[in-house]
Amino acid sequence: MEVALAIVIGALYAAGLYMMLRRSMVKLIAGLVLLGYASNLLIFVVSRLTRARPPLVPEGAQGIAEPFADPVPQALILTAIVIGFGLQAFALVLVRRAYQAVNNDDLDQVTASDRPDLQQ
Amino acid sequence: MTSIILVVATRLIFPLMLMFSLFLLLRGHDAPGGGFVGGLMAASAFALFALATSVTRARDALRRSTFRLIGIGLLFAFVSGLPGLFAGSPFLRALWTSTELPVIGKLSSVLLFDTGVLLVVVGVTLTIVFAMAEADEEEEE
Amino acid sequence: MLPILIPFLMAILSIINWGNRVLHRFLALAGSVGLLFAALALLTTVNEQGILSSNIGDWPAPFGIVLVADLPAAIMILMAAIVGLAVLVYATASMDKGRERFGYYPLILLLLMGMCGAFLTGDLFNLYVWFEIMLIASFALLALGGSRAQLEGSVKYFALNLLVSAFMLTGIGLLYGMTGSLNLAALAQTLRAAGPEQPVTTVAIFFMIAFGIKAAMFPLYFWLPASYHTPPVAVSAIFAGLLTKVGVFALIRVFTLLFVQDTAWTHGLLLAGAALTMLSGVLGAMAFDDIRRIFAFHIISQIAYMVLGLALFVPMALAGTIFYMVHHILVIVSLFLVSGLIARAGGSYFKAQLGGLYGTRPLLALLFLVPALSLSGVPPLSGFWAKLTLLRVTLAQELWLVAAIALLVGLLTLFSMVRIWLSAFWGPPGPAAASVTPMRAGERRALYGSTLALVTLTLALSLFAGPAFELAERASEQLLDPAGYIAAVLGEGS
User: Fold this and answer.
1) pLDDT tens digit string along B84-140?
2) List of residues 6+ apart from A17 with CB closer than 8 A
């Protein structure tokens, strides 16, 4: 299982980087999203995969019996997903606005901040 | 594109969804549930309402602006941290009352925090949903 | 604890009353004054009692989230508070209504909160969360108002920073898999005990790249000059002064506390990066006409001096780095504010359009001259002491090439400042001067007042360089002796 997931993670990183190297703004965002997923999945895998109980203390008991899943990485991933979601939503709005301003999806045309004649 | 089936169903489901969101919030402490899920549930109730009728009416039904909801939610979470600070322990220290209430269980500052989370989630989600829905409505016109 | 809570509360109140500009102004000013007092109180307590730590929610240290205030963190928070207050005062007179209504003030407050959190946190994942809070606030500030250049600048800034997040998260994941903890103090213990078979250095490189992009280090600085000059001055000043410093601070924190196994390799890499950053930054500054872009490139070359101090990795050099950070924050923020004033008084940000300001605005000329000379390290001013310390350590370690580059860069910085002086302040009035409208009295008071306050602080730092440097030395001792940090977080005897 770890091996399969490791391959998936590698593929995600590769795909993300490949997308980022394209010239399109939308692909840039898609690449960043993929990179985010890859790192989330990485955290999930490094904490060791177990087929175990959820880390909840049952009613009346004093603790959980081993083996149980490590809750920390799950909390980390959840936080990272929520933050990533917010950032991606913002990124999409930003790209849409930039697209409207530039009228082009090509990143090579995004040069106004380097050209004094286009600044007011 | 108002469908009569959707409108009628929404009228039934909308209060149920809100009740369920409250239920999720209250049971959240020792069982799956809590402010985040509850907030998403409440937000989807309002999103459904907006789909069935219109964004303007959904905004009216919400009664507060979405930004204000976020602010109030954050304030709730902030306030829930204070009692611990005054009791001499660090910020956000959970305090529990000893009395057991029916349904809710023990009252605590954690519940206040969770309510804050619920309000923030509702506010943020609806800000996004309403903004997108309004952009759509404008394009249709 | 308070430095986070005060801006948070004020931001909350501002969000509740969204769109009320006057109230926002008031809340923001109250918040930053409160932050200033809280920061002063924190600094004196930490100075007297040593490192403080607080477990949020009272969960004990390696498991819960910890906030740790040591001297470097307290100093940085004080700087953030000072700059925040000055920039907010400046903004009350220079920000346009649209941006004010769309939440400029709450965003600045959130940004300050994120910074204080990043300085104080004692947990690696928490550092990531604070970074993201800062990021979201800064994205919104950068894109707010949205001219074409501004939007494009934000796209670049945004893409690079999302990449940083991914790198950082990867590093955090690997580190957690290796050690099973993310608490900085606990990590410092386990990593010191880790054998050579652990890929610690690999993980260290992940963090170096992530924070290096944040701090705008050598191969990865292109986003900074592409975006910093696009928003209004009251936004870019706070970015220039504080955002990159957070990156440098994170580098310092991680590479003094965690990754010290293989200093010859990691810190050697930092050294090379620093030297190249210095050179490329200052050469970039030569090429541009827009004053704000020139300053943006100078940020890069100056950041390198701070990284240099970290790379040398001896107490004296780290003290120099901390002193340098304080000096540079004051100087670069006043320079950005001055660039706003130049544009207000001369009608343009472009050197070629300006001229003769010395005749019409002698005070402005003085306000430019002091930080400009300090930036390039002319003797009695604070920049001289900072550079001198770092240079002496470099020479003591017999790194002749690096020392030569550092000296050369100082000279080139002076040259570039003199060029601005010649074209903007000397000579006949420039062609843009015709479009200038006279300033109202209240506007003049806020704009000049805030800039003057920062310049006075620079002068004070130059005069009292001795005591300030002693404080920096004590801070660097705390950085190089992680035992104190570990004891404060995990308790004695651990």
Assistant:
1) 565 555 555 555 555 555 545 555 667 777 788 888 888 888 887 887 777 766 665
2) A31, A35
H/E run at residue C356: none
Domain range list for chain A = 2-48+68-112
Asked if residue C51 lies in contact with residue C488, where contact means CB atoms within 8 angstroms, the answer is yes
Count CA atoms closer than 13 A to C325's CA, side-chain side: 34
Tell me the residues of chain B between 18 and 77 that have a Cβ less than 8 Å away from chain C: 65, 67-68, 70-72, 74-75
Contact criterion met (CB < 8 Å) for B84 and C58: yes
- Distance from the Cα of B31 to chain A's closest Cα (Å) equals 9
Q: Give the residues of chain A that fall short of pLDDT 70.
A: 48-69, 107-120
Going by C-alpha positions, the residue among B25, B14, B120, B16 that lies closest to residue B58 is B14
- CA C336/CA C238 separation, integer angstroms: 9
**Cβ of B108: how many Cβ atoms within 10 Å?**
17
Who contacts B17 (Cβ-Cβ below 8 Å, separation ≥6)?
A: B41, B42, B44, B45, B48
Residue with tokens 């904490």: A47
What spatial distance separates the first Cα and last Cα of chain A, rounded to whole Å? Answer: 57
The widest CA-to-CA distance across chain C, in whole angstroms, is 71
Task: Count the domains in chain B.
Answer: 1
Q: Closest Cα partner for C211 from C85, C116, C310? A: C310
Q: How many CB pairs under 8 A join B and C?
A: 49
Q: How far apart are CA B123 and CA C491, in angstroms?
A: 41
Q: In angstroms, what separates the C-alpha of A6 from chain B's closest C-alpha?
A: 30
Amino acid occupying residue C9: L
Q: Which chain C residues are closer than 8 Å to A16 by Cβ? A: 166
Q: Is the pLDDT of residue C493 over 50?
A: no
Fold of A2-48+68-112: Helix Hairpins (1.10.287)
| Class of residue C35 by CB neighbours under 10 A (exposed 0-12, middle 13-18, buried 19+) | buried
| Nearest to C244, CA basis, from C148, C162, C333 | C333
User: Which domain does B67 fall in, by range?
Assistant: 4-140
* Cis-peptide into C232, omega within 30 deg: no
Residue C165: list chain A partners with CB under 8 A.
36, 83-84, 87
Partner C contacted by A43 (CB < 8 A):
yes
The whole-angstrom separation of Cα A56 and Cα B56 is: 43
Distance of CA A116 to the CA centre of its chain: 35
3-state class (DSSP) for residue A98:
helix
Distances (CA, A) of B47 to B52, C18, C103, C152: 9, 22, 25, 33
- Cβ separation B71–C16 shorter than 8 A: yes
Owner of token pair 């006075």: C456
Please spell the DSSP secondary structure of B42-92, one letter per residue. Answer: HHHHHHHHHHHS-HHHHHHHH-S-HHHHHHHHHHHHHHHHHHHHHTTS-TT
pTM above 0.95, yes or no: no
Interface test with B, best of C23, C58, C63, C101 (most B CBs within 10 A): C58
Rounded to whole angstroms, the Cα distance separating C81 from C77 reads 6
| Chain C adjacent subunits, 3+ CB pairs under 8 A | A, B
Residue C27, amino acid: L
Q: Which of B68, B78, B93 sits opposite C58 (nearest CB)?
A: B93
The minimum CA-CA distance between A115 and chain B, rounded to whole Å, is 32
Sole residue written with tokens 């705008």: C216
CB C344 within 8 A of CB C361: no
| Runs of H (alpha helix) within C287-346 | 291-312, 315-346
Quick: pLDDT tens for B38-96: 888 888 888 888 888 777 777 777 777 777 777 777 777 777 766 656 555 555 555 55
Q: Between C129, C152, C166, which is nearest A35 by CB?
A: C166
